[in-house]
C-alpha cells in the first residue's frame, strides 16, 4: 500500500519511486492527504538525494494533472516563455504581443515578485484597471480576439505546486533543481502549451549566480519539459546588471512602452525579446529557424504591430482603451524623485544586481511578506550599466520613493551596490548559451 512515509524513505535512501508513487504524492499534496511535515520531509529528501530524469518528468506530469489541464482549438501554435527571474526583466510585456502579432497564441501564466526579483503581474497591475485574474471563459474569449493574455494562475491550475511551493519556502528547499523544474513546468504545461522557450538567468541578479549552476537548471528544465511532451529550448542569459535601465513596476512599464512605440528603444530588451521570440516561433513551426524568427519579432516591434496587440490586450483586461497613445498620462508617479550621486571617479566594474532588487522591495515595489501591498510607482530608473564611465557626483540613476527618508536609504544602498574601478571591464553578451 502506497503511503507518504514509504515514498519519503525511498528517496532518502537513494531509491527511485515509481511514477505511480510520485502521482500518489502529488495528489496527496493537492487534497491534503499529505501533511505539511511529510511535504517538508519529501522536499528535503529530494534536495539532498535528487530524482532521476524519469522521476522528475513523472513528478512534473503528476503535479500538472492535480488540476485542470487546458486544451486549445486555435489556428496557430500555442507558445509561451518563462524567465527564472531577474532585475529590470520586463521582456514578457514585449514578447507576448510580439508573438501574437506573428501568428502565435500566447496564454502566458505569470507570477508576482519573488524575493528580490520583480513580478510580471505586479508590473501590469500598475496600469490602472488592468485585471490579471481572468476566468477560463474570459481567457478563451481573449485568446480568440487578441491572441495573447498575461494572467495569474487560477486556483485549479496545478494545485499541488501551490502547496509544495509554500512548503519549500519555509523548509530551506527552494534551491532543489528537481523541485524548481516540477514547479515551473507543472503550471506551464497545464496551460496546454505546444512550445516553450526558457530564459534562465545567470549572474549577480539571478537565483543562479554561476554559469555551471544556470546550465544545470536549463538542461534539467529542457529535458523535463520535452519528456513531458512540450517542445522546449532554453537561453542562458546575463543578469550581472539590470536588463532594463529601470527596476520597479510602473517604471519598467514606461521602458516597455518607450521600446514598443519606438520613442526610446532599449537595445538590451529589444535584442533579448527577439532572441527568445525567435526560438519560440521556431518551436511553433511558424519560421524556418530561430534566426528567421528573431527577424520576424523585430519586424513586429518595428512596425508597431506588437504595440497594437499590447494595446488590445490592456483594453481586454480592463485597462485604458487608449493606453498605447496616452501611456505617459496613465501611469502613476512617485512623489519623491532624487538623483543617486556616484561616490568615485572611474568605470562601473561590478554591480550587485540582487542588492538593487532588494532596494526596490524596501521602497515598497515588492513584498517583504505575503499579503504586502505593492506601491506601483516606486523603484529605480536611468541606471547606468557595466563599463560606463562615471565621475563623483554624477548620477548612477534616479530613485523614485514614497518618502524622503525612503529615498535617502535607497540612495545609500544603490551607491553600495555599484563598484567603480580604473579600467573598463568586459561586458558579457546578453545570451551566454543555448540549450535545446
Q: What tags apply to this protein structure?
A:
alpha/beta, 17 helices, 3 domains, 436 residues, Aldehyde Oxidoreductase, domain 3, Pyrimidine Nucleoside Phosphorylase, Chain A, domain 2, globular, four-stranded mixed β-sheet
Uncertain ranges: none
Taken in chain order, the helices and strands follow as HHHHEHEHHEHHEHEHHHHHEEHEEEHEE
- As a whole number of angstroms, the C-alpha radius of gyration is 22 Å
| Beta content | 5-15%
Task: Give the number of DSSP strands.
Answer: 12
Distance between the termini: 39 Å
Number of domains: 3
Quote the CATH topology of the largest domain: Pyrimidine Nucleoside Phosphorylase, Chain A, domain 2
CATH class of the largest domain: Alpha Beta
| Structural class by SSE content | alpha/beta
Morphology:
globular
| Proper CATH architecture of the largest domain | 3-Layer(aba) Sandwich
Helix percentage: 40-55%
Q: How many strands, what sense, and barrel or not for the largest sheet?
A: 4 strands, mixed
Biggest sheet: strand arrangement:
1-4-5-12
Task: Note down, in words, how this protein is organized.
The chain is an alpha/beta fold and 436 residues long. It folds into three domains: 4-50, no CATH class; 79-326, Nucleoside phosphorylase/phosphoribosyltransferase catalytic domain (Pyrimidine Nucleoside Phosphorylase, Chain A, domain 2, 3-Layer(aba) Sandwich), CATH 3.40.1030.10; 336-421, Pyrimidine nucleoside phosphorylase-like, C-terminal domain (Aldehyde Oxidoreductase, domain 3, Alpha-Beta Complex). The chain is 48% helix and 15% strand. It is built from 17 helices and twelve strands. It has a four-stranded mixed beta sheet with strand order 1-4-5-12, with helices on both faces. The protein has a three-stranded antiparallel beta sheet with strand order 6-10-8. Helix 4 (53-64) packs across helix 10 (211-227). The longest helix has 17 residues, at 211-227. The radius of gyration is 22 Å and the shape is globular. The mean pLDDT is 94.
